[in-house]
Write a structure and sequence with these properties.
The chain is mainly beta. Helices cover 7% and strands 27% of the residues. It is built from two helices and 13 strands, in the order H-E-E-E-E-E-E-E-E-E-E-E-E-H-E. The strands form four sheets. A five-stranded parallel beta sheet has the order 3-5-7-9-11, with no helix packed on it. The chain is globular. The model has no long low-confidence stretch (mean pLDDT 89).
């Protein structure tokens, strides 16, 4: 599993173990992970599932881009920021964006050609960088809190016709 080592600037903690358990790669850190730094898992072709703890607040630039096997992603509830190109050209079909996310960087989910269901739990529409969700599945939909559909459509005009209400 890559990365095989880390420095504190990648995860704000040191990687102390990188092993396989029950057929899955498992990392152990010496402290709570608060960021997934720039390029941390870029082009990790074998990464299929990621479950981030609630302690992670930031996903850095290109943190998971070109992870061509990444199909299942669980973002922790503490996440607030998704960096530029974070999931660029990944293969997931859906993503659930936690309530605290306030901003998507430029092209953060661009070229995720299978991405068709985007669930955004935030009450206030997050800031959205250029091309954040461009070149996704042609049938993609954004599911946002039912009471805030009109606000999302106002703030995200280029995706307005793709936004639907959802009861989280």
């Amino acid at each position: 599993l890559s990365p095989t080592k880390s420095t504190p600037d990648i995860f704000q903690a040191n990687l102390i173990s990188n092993v396989y358990e029950n057929g899955q790669g498992c990392y152990t850190f010496d402290d709570e992970v608060t960021i997934v730094g720039d390029y941390a898992f870029q082009k990790c072709a074998t990464l299929a599932t990621i479950k981030l703890p609630d302690s992670v607040v930031t996903l850095g630039r290109n943190s998971f881009d070109h992870c061509t096997s990444l199909r299942e992603i669980h973002l922790g509830n503490g996440l607030t920021y998704i960096g530029k190109y974070a999931f660029w050209s990944c293969t997931m079909t859906e993503i659930v964006i936690p309530e605290l996310v306030y901003s998507f960087g430029e092209a953060s989910f661009e070229y995720c050609r299978n991405l068709s269901n985007i669930y955004v739990k935030a009450i206030t529409p997050p800031n959205i960088g250029p091309r954040a969700f461009d070149a996704n599945a042609s049938n993609r939909k954004f599911y946002v809190p039912q009471e805030y559909v009109a606000e999302y459509q106002r703030v995200w005009p280029s995706y307005a016709k793709l936004i639907e209400g959802y009861k989280f």
